[in-house]
Design goal:
Elements: H1 6-17, H2 31-37, H3 44-51, H4 80-99, H5 103-121, H6 129-151, H7 155-168, H8 173-185, H9 189-202, H10 207-236
Helix pairs in contact: 1-3, 4-5, 5-6, 6-7, 6-8, 7-8, 8-9, 9-10
Length: 238
């Protein structure tokens, strides 16, 4: 009787381990209604336990011991107010890690801050003032995250995120610039040139920076052309 709701708890824990929302697929109702609502939890062992509750033995392993005051809650475990308070702190931690050259760690911090705000945004009506306010807080964090992903050479993720920003904010110079760099990195030459042209149209003061990126792209294209000629020459000479 004390563990009758364990299948639901276990599903949430498995969602957390997979990086998903722990309440994915659930609705606000009492525990018994949840049991009737979910004919399958997606796991055969949990389905069986839900149909036939039985005494359970929990085997708990201590992974680490943290000093008092050093523990930071995961975003999914925070209240809405705690999420809002945590975002500036997590953002600051991400900036500091980036300055230290710890780029993957910084990306993880930005991701956590974004997750906090996205969770809050899901509770608002899309397009409402509160939704827009949260989205405007998400955008700079997402751009920081994209900068980290550029340095980690995860270009297609940058393309996706920058495009999602530009679908909402057509004048975001940073999004065009980062997307242009990502396009250049994956040899989408025309798309890169178009994005860099848009950067210049929106902010002419960035002409030296854009010119440097275009020169780099042209140099890479010339080098690639030389390599292709050598490669194809070898093929046709056989």
């Amino acid at each position: 009787q004390h563990v009758v709701l364990y299948p639901m708890v276990s599903k949430s824990l498995r969602n957390i381990a997979a990086g998903k929302d722990p309440l994915e697929g659930q609705r606000h109702c009492c525990g018994i209604a949840q049991l009737h609502e979910h004919h399958s939890l997606g796991y055969a062992d949990l389905d069986e336990l839900q149909k036939n509750p039985q005494p359970l033995i929990f085997d708990i392993e201590v992974l680490k011991v943290e000093e008092p005051g050093s523990y930071q809650q995961d975003p999914w475990a925070m209240t809405d107010e705690e999420k809002l308070q945590a975002v500036p702190l997590i953002h600051k931690e991400g900036n500091e890690l980036y300055r230290q050259g710890k780029v993957p760690e910084a990306a993880s911090k930005y991701y956590d801050a974004i997750a906090c705000l996205k969770n809050l945004q899901m509770k608002e009506q899309p397009g409402s003032p509160d939704w827009i306010e949260l989205d405007q807080k998400i955008t700079p964090l997402l751009l920081n995250y994209c900068q980290c992903k550029l340095q980690c050479q995860e270009y297609y993720e940058v393309l996706d995120h920058c495009s999602s920003i530009l679908n909402k904010y057509e004048d975001n110079v940073k999004a065009y610039f980062k997307r242009g760099k990502a396009h250049a990195a994956v040899w989408n030459v025309a798309e890169a040139q178009a994005d860099f042209a848009k950067v210049l149209a929106l902010d002419p003061s960035l002409r030296p920076v854009v010119a440097k990126e275009l020169r780099s792209l042209e140099a890479r294209l010339r080098e690639k052309d030389k390599e292709d000629k050598v490669r194809f020459k070898g093929i046709f000479s056989q």
